[in-house]
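Example 3.2
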Amino acid sequence: MNKELLKQIITPSLLLGIFALVGVVVLSSVHSLTSHTIAQNEQTSLLKQLAEVVDEGSYNNDLLNDYTMLDGAALGSNYPVTVYRARQNGKPVTAIFVTSTPQGYSGTIKLVVGVRIDKSISGVRVAQHNETPGLGDKMELRKSDWVLSFNQTSLNNPQLSGWKVKKDGGEFDQFTGATITPRAIVHAVKEVLLWSTHAQQFDSIFQAPSEPAKVLDNG
């Protein structure tokens, strides 16, 4: 094979190899930059959700760096439950459960539920869902104030028998044309409260070692 023919064969292959290498480097760099941005956005979003279910000014620790994990089955969740711990000068204030229920009309609904040390609800927010727009999505605070009906509630307010939607004989409103979604949420919040009423279990949340910061990833 003469040198000219060899050159004609090698040069295109070499150029293709260089282009491929450059492409890999560029894609890797873009992925690295976007992954960092996405992670930061997720952390910011999570912190906002956590802060919304804790009484303002009631804690002074870093929530994202103070959490423990629980078996989801114990709380009726179809995923492991992450519990963030709000403390004031080291003293327990509120446990924030990132839990879920598989009983939504369109599948899993992920919730953020704050429980104070007196076992009352400090707040509830919907973190993720696939419910029908215009019906089931009324659980979102930007769509209605329904989720605020959990504020200050406990297993004594209302009584345990009242932890149902009104259609089932309980105290909580359902949505017009949609009962399954609010029924699932009420049940999930009740499960968190039932678990929390066991003093030893609830206290163990604040006694467990802290783990590294993470983002909302229950499933």
